[in-house]
Amino acid sequence: MHRQVALVVLALGLCQVLSLRIAVHAQQPLEPTSLKETDPPETDQPETDPPDRAPREPDWPQAYLPSEPVPETARITPLFPAQSPADPIGPGHTVSLFNDTSTLTLGGNVSLVGIAATERTFVPWNPLFVLPPSAFGYNTNTFEMHARQTNFQAMFTGPETEGFTPGAVLKIYMSDTSLTSDTYGLLPVVAFADVKNDDWRFAIGLQPDLFAPRDPVVIPISLMGGTGNSGTFRGQVRLEHFFKPTDDFQTTFQVALSDPISTILIDSNRRSTESNGWPNVEGRVALGFGGRDEQLGGRQERSLEVAAAGVVGQLRNSQLITTIDDINDGTVIRSEIDVWGLSLDGKWNVTDRFGFIGEGYVGQGLGNYAANIFQTFNSQTYAAVRGSGGLLEGFYYFNEKVVVHAGYGIDAPVRGDLAADGIARNDAWFSSLFWDLNRTIQLGFQVDYRTTDYVALPDNDAVVFYTQFLWRF
């Protein structure tokens, strides 16, 4: 039944998009200067170029650009993918500091998200996968409305010294200690300092992973985690080098030492998972082809970007002993898990308004990277869980104000590596639409059709509807 509902919903969504195209076709686009001072609707991919000019994406660095002209080396090097296309901040407020040698830019947005699902998901306010149906046949449809995606951002840029420009970035969401929390609080997603020039960048702090950094363009800040999109945020020391022989080609080399445990996810198993005494090592090589040309939506992007990344590390997990009954002859008190992963990602701008985004991974012990449906080890044998996954998404700009995205994502751990309580497959078809009414107001709409396959528990599927009202400041 849910599959039939999903087909009907997707058909209605297509009709809505076509009618919307007719409605907005006659509208005049925003002035170019207005678009370049704010963020476009679509902010999804990692940028890899040191800026010859102020970059359009991702949304965080773009929002931090000072409004006054600055030297080329002082402009913000594109650092990481956007957290969500639905939360680019507005014009913000930039002040000069220390006799006009430094700038501080403050901004953010107020977000109100509504989520309705035909079956209960984990979690209803930030869906990651579908829970099993009720054993008693009860309805488990849900509705949530929250403002936890409201966020505040700050960027500091200091004076150039010895050819390097220092800076710092902070982004905080109004969520509690993790993305699965249902209470309000303060959740730092990014907090780092860096120094950079046109050839090198060194950064320390809370940063996005180098492993599988490309994100789909969707409303929820979970960004299809556990459904084909791996990579999260963690403490990290990073070094980057940019090699640009011509304006039409660039290679970016990145390497990092990072915390083996993600600061965003929760280990819900009755075991303590920690590092095994040494950091994870991450690396990435990105290639950019074509000049950074003007694209519809105010973007400045190359026609093709491809990248390969990897991570290696080790975890240690120990059983939590709470009663004498937790100990028996077959209990594995402690084990070590080898972590490794390989990822490929890319973006192809076929035209100035149409293109594709893709990412795929393979590896083991990657639950802390939002891969393999967050499963790091078998809950019975405590051996590492292997698996693979990925996503493919297409996008189309109707004009400067309206963009639509549609795609498919899947996580597929090796079933034989899972215990009876494991999740063997999690996938979703999704489509999102973003409409910038003006510089500060954005409307977002999204529909998912999700299916979750359990090893022993009953499988389930759901249609999930999202709406978002966004006010940038």
Please report which band the strand proportion falls in: under 5%, 5-15%, 15-25%, 25-35%, 35-45% or over 45%: over 45%
Rounded to an integer in angstroms, the radius of gyration calculated over CA atoms is: 22 Å
Number of strands: 23
Question: Strands of the biggest beta sheet: in what spatial order?
Answer: 2-6-7-8-9-10-11-13-16-17-18-19-20-21-22-23
Tertiary shape: globular
The H/E string reads HHHEEEEEEEEEEEEEEEEEEEEEEE
- Counting DSSP H or I runs of 4 or more residues, the number of helices is 3
Oligomer: single chain
Write down the overall mean pLDDT.
Answer: 82
Secondary structural class: mainly beta
Q: Helical percent range?
A: under 10%
Instruction: Note the gap between the termini.
Output: 43 Å
Q: Would you write up a description of this structure?
A:
The protein has 473 residues and is mainly beta. It is built from 3 helices and 23 strands. The chain has a 16-stranded antiparallel barrel with strand order 2-6-7-8-9-10-11-13-16-17-18-19-20-21-22-23. The protein has a two-stranded antiparallel sheet with strand order 3-4. A hairpin with a 6-residue loop joins strand 3 (121-122) and strand 4. The longest helix has 24 residues, at 2-25. The two termini are 43 Å apart. The relative contact order is 0.16.
